[in-house]
Amino acid sequence: MKKPGLKDQITRHAVIFFHYTAQYMKTKMAYRADFFIYVLSDLLLQSVNLIFLLVVFSKVPDIKGWDRNQVLFIYGFFLVPFGFYSGFFNHLFDVPEKYVLQGEMDRVLVRPLNAWYQVVVETMNPELLVGTLAGIVIMAYSGSAMGLQLAWWDIPLALVLVLGATMIYAGVYTFLASLGFWTEGNIGLMPMVYNLSNYGRYPMTIYRGPVRFILTWILPFAFVGFYPSTVLLHRYEYIGHALLTPLVGVICFTVAYRVWTAGIRRYRGTGS
Amino acid sequence: MPGKKTGRGRLAAHFWNRLMLYIELMRMEFVNNLAYRTTYFTGIFNYSIQIGAYFFLWDSIYAGRKVLGGLNKEEMITYLIVAWVVRSFYFSNLDRRVAVEIRDGKIALELIRPYSYQMVKYARAFGEAVFRILFFALPAGALIYLIRPFGLPASWQNGLVFLLTMLGSFAITAQISMLAGFLAFFTRSASGIYRAKRVIMDLFSGLLLPISFYPDWAREIIKLFPFQVISYMPNLIYLGKISGAAALQVVMLQFFWILVLGFTGFWFWRFAVKHVVIQGG
Fold this sequence. Notes:
The complex is a heterodimer of chains A (about 270) and B (about 280).
Chain A: H1 6-29, H2 32-57, E1 62-63, E2 66-67, H3 68-89, H4 94-101, H5 105-109, H6 115-123, H7 130-145, H8 154-183, H9 189-197, H10 209-218, H11 226-232, H12 239-266
Antiparallel strand pairs in A: 1-2
Helix pairs in contact in A: 2-3, 3-7, 3-8, 3-11, 4-8, 8-12, 11-12
Chain B: H1 2-34, H2 37-61, E1 67-68, E2 71-72, H3 73-90, H4 94-104, H5 107-111, H6 117-147, H7 156-182, H8 190-204, H9 216-223, H10 232-239, H11 244-280
Antiparallel strand pairs in B: 1-2
Helix pairs in contact in B: 1-6, 2-3, 2-6, 3-6, 3-10, 4-7, 4-8, 6-7, 7-10, 7-11
């Protein structure tokens, strides 16, 4: 049998994605009002941070050299990859309990489709991409408030940076999920990492040495918000870091995916 | 008149019985939670990371500034840590529990039992809160104090009144939570309710920001609600910004809100239960 080409592979995955989304929407549309309230309340939850920043900046002109619009812009950028994360990778935390401990992985592994991809599309909540939209609105608002002039390379650069940041999220959470193949059950790291990821939405200048180091080089959440957004708002003191974002994303995800594959190889089912 | 006397005696016995029941429920919930105490330890660590984010933020907001919203930097750091640590005591997920029971129909079973549904829930919630203060709030406070020492209560009187207000914060939070849970009688979108409640509580109780940071018009609105006696005012008592008679007034204000919310809860419960019967029939 001929191995399908890359193009066929992509089409196949896209078609499957479409089917999963359609299926997902059907289940959600059964409780339509519920669904919309859920989405709206998610935005509401995010708005707390926004209100916090707005109130603080009514009292002070800047935080460690970053003014209101710049901090809002950074927060807006942060929300974009964060939306992709909450839409597609947040539920990777189900893997240790649901897929490994309860043996759901058996079902996934006998199907002729990449296991990681299956888990992602099975557990996704694509409606949370609305957070991404909110982030774009906040960026547009704060960008125009600071009189930001778009350069031709801003949009393609933004896309690459968002992709890199999303891969960091995907990588970190895939890695944590893969640990479940060894621990067989939750080890409670996810909430901790989630709390740390929220550190990425503020200028790194507010953190002291070791914290900044950890957020840059160990759990690279500085690259999901602060570093990439600084170039987009045309402040270039962190351009070196910012341009590393895609590379960090690729490394993060590649390493995590290898751990994942090793985990799958180790997986033996529940035995019943 | 002997008949009347025994009647009164019976009433007293009845109240005594009830009290014992609620204390027993409190104890049960406390013991239940003991089984999960190890998970609480990772929880403390997570909580500290969350508080850490706000610490860095406030530390930077105050960089080069003396006083904002009536608090200086040290006071703000203390405010922030105390607010979060105490929240781990008064925090309530009654809304979730009540909403689940309503959604699953378990509430019908509760309705035929010879006790007050709300009081049982409060008693258990208090048992859990007592557990959390011993196994979460105190160790978390101690851990944070080791990493970053913060201010102690302004005086022993303030400390004492502050402890008293903690009970009030618990009661009011539990009551608001209960009312939010009752909304599940009328909507299936329980998750929307939890989130809306959480947003309102976090913003208006003063947990995230002292109320003094808000613009005047917002403060005027917040004043009309019970939220600011949950966190903002008790914290000011801790810091010594409110002392003496004014501090006792905060306790009275809490008491006032407990009565108002208690009455609302009682009324809402009866109304909602009738509503359920209509739905079922």
